[in-house]
Amino acid sequence: MKRVFSGVQPTGNIHIGNYLGALRQFVELQNENDCIYCIVDMHSITVPQDPRELRKHTLDVAALYMAIGVDPKKATVFVQSDVPGHAELSWVLTCSSYTGELSRMTQFKDKSKGKESAPTGLFSYPVLMAADILLYDSNVVPVGNDQKQHIELCRDLAIRVNNKYGETFVIPEGRFLKEGARIMALDDPASKMSKSAENPLSRISLLDDESKIKKSIMKSTTDSEGTIRFDIANKPGVSNLINIYSSFSGMSVEEIEKKYDGCGYGEFKKDLVQVTSESLKPIRERFEDIRNSDELIRILKDGAEKANAISEKTMARVKDRFGLGIGK
Ligand code: TYM
């Protein structure tokens, strides 16, 4: 049985990019693997957060995990800051990382672009992410394609420590969906769909109602050619919509192109609204019940306890290898 680990930041507006790129895999993987799913609140404070909103979003993401089908009887679900090992291991890994490799991370470059000085937490974000993964001896990490570079860094750090201090960490593998699984912004298909983009119509959040879904899709950017054809280079907007259609309906790109041969964008978009709404409706319905139940806190406390037990074992091994503390 493989150990699977992944996390989502509680920054609100969890969207269909997060779902199709990562969250949906969480459910598929839980039946045959030992899965640990985390709400990574310490990653969220790499940018300013309102404390009350942060806690609300943390519980929202936990409820969303369950609403999409994560089963706490099968998978461990917990909040990152409830397990001290994440911060502890992050420091140890910081001391094995280099400013050069962290400066090359595209996410850091994007987020610090044009600024003379950037928050240190933003810079070391990928080290904390590596700690999350390595703390649990994870074999598989389901994430969206935008996280490839971070997974590569995590592997590099693990290999570096193993080479220097002896076998300490399991080397994890990323689990990415096919290249097209990156969902782009609906108003600008050159940027990825994001939780923080100013225009709410640029994304479809998992809890959006049908009228918001309709508005976002009907207003989405396409092109003037007027044919439903998958061609990322020349038709990025339409290709993104085909991708979303395919991911929700299970139809292949070819089947979609065939079905809409000769049709205009209006008709295609109308159907996409329906396909998307039908897929998200059950999630929205389950979410409220779970979010308002006392059960949620109990699940997160149980999860933190289980995660902590694994984390303590790894930290004892790490401290031993590095000669930290007074030993046994
Ligand atoms: P976050 O919360 O920004 O994103 C959560 C997941 O959604 C994926 N994703 C996308 N996939 C497809 N299209 C998009 N437009 C899109 N936007 C986001 C992300 O790849 C991610 O899988 N750094 C992580 C959080 C994290 C983590 C970890 C993940 C912290 N520690 C350890 C795995 C293991 C992140 O990007 O979260």
From TrEMBL:
For this protein, the record's CDD domains field holds:
TrpRS_core (cd00806)
| GO BP | tryptophanyl-tRNA aminoacylation
Name the PROSITE patterns for this protein: AA_TRNA_LIGASE_I
Q: What enzyme class is recorded for this protein? A: ligase
Instruction: Write out the residues that bind ATP.
Output: 9-11, 17-18, 144-146, 183, 192-196
According to UniProt, the reaction catalysed is:
tRNA(Trp) + L-tryptophan + ATP = L-tryptophyl-tRNA(Trp) + AMP + diphosphate + H(+)
| Source domain of life | Bacteria
Return the motif ranges for 'KMSKS' region.
192-196
User: Where located?
Assistant: Cytoplasm
Q: Does the keyword Nucleotide-binding apply?
A: yes
What's in the keyword line of the UniProt record?
Answer: Aminoacyl-tRNA synthetase, ATP-binding, Cytoplasm, Ligase, Nucleotide-binding, Protein biosynthesis
Q: What is its EC number?
A: 6.1.1.2
The listed location of motif 'HIGH' region is: 10-18
InterPro entries annotated for this entry? aa-tRNA-synth_I_CS (IPR001412), aa-tRNA-synth_Ic (IPR002305), Rossmann-like_a/b/a_fold (IPR014729), Trp-tRNA-ligase (IPR002306), Trp-tRNA-ligase_bac-type (IPR024109), Trp-tRNA_synthetase (IPR050203)
Which molecular function term from Gene Ontology is one that the record holds? tryptophan-tRNA ligase activity
Q: Which residues cross the membrane?
A: none
**Its biological function?**
Catalyzes the attachment of tryptophan to tRNA(Trp).
HAMAP family from the xrefs? Trp_tRNA_synth_B
- Name recorded for this polypeptide: Tryptophan--tRNA ligase
Native species: Aminipila terrae
Provide the gene name from the record: trpS
